[in-house]
Amino acid sequence: MIVAEKLSKYFGSKKVIQDVSIEVKRGAITSFIGPNGAGKSTLLSMVSRLLKQDDGIVYLDGKDVHKQKSKDLAKTIAILRQSNVVQMRLTVRELVSFGRFPYSNGRLTAEDEQKVSEAISYVNLVEMEDKYLNELSGGQKQRAFIAMVLAQDTDYILLDEPLNNLDMKHAVQMMKLLRKLVEDFGKTILLVIHDINFASVYSDRIVAMKDGKIVAEGPTEDIIQSDVLKSIYDLDIDVHNISCNRICVYF
Amino acid sequence: MLKRKIILLLVVALSLASLYLFIHMNFQAMEYLLRTRLEKILAMILCAVSIGVSTVVFQTITHNRILTPSIMGLDSVYMFIQTIVVFLFGSGTFVIMQSDAYFFLTILLMVGFAFGLYQLLFRRGQSNLFLLLLVGLVLGTFFSSLSSFMQMIIDPNEFLLIQDSMFASFTDVNTDLLLISAVIIIVLCIYIFRYRHYFDVMSIGRDHAVNLGVPYEKIVKRMFLVIAVLVAVSTALVGPITFLGLLTANLAREFLQTFRHTYLLIAASLLSVIALLGGQLVVERIFSFSTPISVIINFVGGVYFIYLLVRESKKI
User: Fold this and answer.
1) What is the spatial distance between Cα B117 and Cα B111, in angstroms, rounded to a whole number?
2) Domains of chain B
3) Nearest residue in chain A measured CA to CA from B200
4) Which of A17, A32, A137, B311 has its CA 20 to 30 A from that of A41?
5) Inter-chain contact B204–A90, Cβ cutoff 8 Å?
6) What CATH number was assigned to the domain covering residues A2-76+154-249?
7) pLDDT of B191-212, one tens digit each?
8) Across the interface, do B196 and A106 touch by the CB < 8 Å criterion?
9) CA distances from A198 to A193, A194, A207, A241 (A)
C-alpha cells in the first residue's frame, strides 16, 4: 500500500503540492485526473522518489520511501514519466533490457532475457525489437518505454500519461493490458490520465486534483458524476450510462 | 562486432607504439634510446587513458557530448600555479618545477580547487552539476586572466619558462613521477570501470536511472571528484591538452555506435593513445620538435569540435 502523509512541494515560492495525504489501495488501478498544473505528475514523482518532497512522508508498504535503498525500491516500484527523450542510439530490445537492471546489474541472465521478450510481446513490438528508437513512431516509442517498465516486473507501476501518442486501438490495448496486469498478477497501478472516459471505464478508483490539492477521491462511480466533475474542471459534463460504462460527454 | 573494433584499435595502437619505439634506431645508443622512448610511451599511455576515461564519464554524467572536464577550470588553475611560482621566485623556478614536491603541490592545489567547488555547491542540499560547472568556468577565466596579467609584467626570459608549461609535452617527463602517476591513474580507472554498467543506465537519463535503482546523485558526485583527480594528475605530469578528450570520446562514440561503457571507455583510451603516439611521431619526425604536440592535437580537436557544433545545430 502507498500512503502519503501531508506532502508538500514548492518550486521556488510557488506551492505546487499542498498538504496532500492519500492512501492508494493494492491490486487496483487508481487514476489521477485534473486540469493541467494540478500537481498530478509532481505527486507521482514524489511517491516514486524521483523528486524529493519539501514536507511530509511517503510510505511504501509501511516503509519511508526516501530511507530505502534505491536498488531495492527499483524492484518494487516503477515509474514512467511523460516526456521520454533518449539521445543514445538504442534498439527497442536494448531499451527494454534496461528494465532488468535492478536484477541483473547489466549482465542479463536467461530469465532476464525471457522477461524482456515477454514485455516486448505485451506491447506488440516483437517484429520491431531490433529497430532503433529514432526509427519508430511516437506511439511505438511510447510502447517501448512502457515495455521497459513492465520488464522491471514491480508490484507498483506508476505511469504518467501512458496513452500519450497512442492511437485509439493501441490506447485501448494498453488499458486492457493494464487491467490484465491488475487482475492476473495483482499489480497496483497508478495513472495520470487526461481522457476521463478512459479513466472512467478502466480504473477502480479515481483521485481528482486541482491547484495542488486533492478535491475528490473515491471509487470511480462516485467521482464520475456531473456535479463532482463540474467542481474539478469548471465544465458542464453530462454523464451517460452506455453499456454499463459511465461515459462523459463534454463537447 | 564491438569486440572486433576494439581489437582493431588495439592493433593500431600497438603498431604505432612499436613504430615509435624502433624508428630511426641507432644501435650504438640502443639501450638509452629504448629506455627514454619507453618512458615517453608510458607517459603518453597514462595521459591518454586518464583523458579518455575521464572525458567519456564526464560527458555521460553531464549528458553533453561537447563538454570536456577542462570546463571545470583545472587547466587554468594549473597555468595560474605555474605563473605565480615563476612570478614569485623568478628564474630559480626551473629547479623548483622539476621537483617531486612541486608535482604533488600542483596536484593538491588542482584537486583542492575542484573539491572547493564541490563543497560549495553540492553540500548545500540542491545538487546542480551545471551550476557547479558554470562557477568552474567563471573561476577558470578569472585565473587565466590573472595569469595573463602576471605574464605581462614578468621578465620575458622567465615568460619562456611559463610558455613551456602552457603546452603538454612528453619530452621531459620525470621518471619517478611516472610510476607514482601510473599507480594513481590505474587505481582510479579500475574504480571508474566498476561503475560501467551504471553509466549505461545513466546515459538514458536521470529519471530512468533513478527509477532503475541507480544512486544517481551519489555517483555523479563521486565521479566528479575522481575525474578531477585524474585530470589533475595527467595535467601535472605532461601539461594541459584540452581537446584530446573531446576528440577521442566523440570518435569512440561515432566509431562504436553503442551506449555500452565497457567498450566506450576502452575505445576512448585506445583512440587517445593512437592520437598521442601519432601526434608525437609527427612532431618528432616531420616537424623535428618545432611544434609541441598539444598544438597539433588542439588543432585537429578544434576543427572536429566546430564540425560537431555545426552538425548538432543542423539536427535541431
Assistant:
1) 10
2) 2-21+35-315 (1.10.3470.10)
3) A106
4) A137
5) yes
6) 3.40.50.300
7) 999 999 999 999 998 899 999 9
8) yes
9) 8, 8, 14, 14
Separation between Cα atoms, residue B118 and residue A243, nearest integer Å: 62
CA count, 13 A, side-chain hemisphere, A140? 16
pLDDT tens, residue by residue, A11-53: 888 889 999 999 998 999 999 999 998 999 999 999 999 988 8
Q: Which three cell numbers stand for residue B138?
A: 567563471
Phi (first) and psi of residue A159, to 5 degrees:
-125, 125
Give residue limits of the domains in chain A. Answer: 2-76+154-249, 85-153
Rounded CA separation B141/B73 (Å):
8
Kindly state whether B213 is in contact with chain A, defined as any CB-CB distance less than 8 angstroms.
Answer: yes
Which residue type sits at B315? K
d(CA B195, nearest CA chain A) in Å: 10
Can you read off the three cell numbers belonging to residue B316? 535541431
ipTM of this predicted complex?
Answer: 0.90
Nearest CB to A70: which of B196, B214, B258? Answer: B214
* Burial per residue of A8-33, b for 16 or more beta-carbon CB atoms within 10 angstroms, e otherwise: bbeeeeebbbbebebebeeebbbbbb
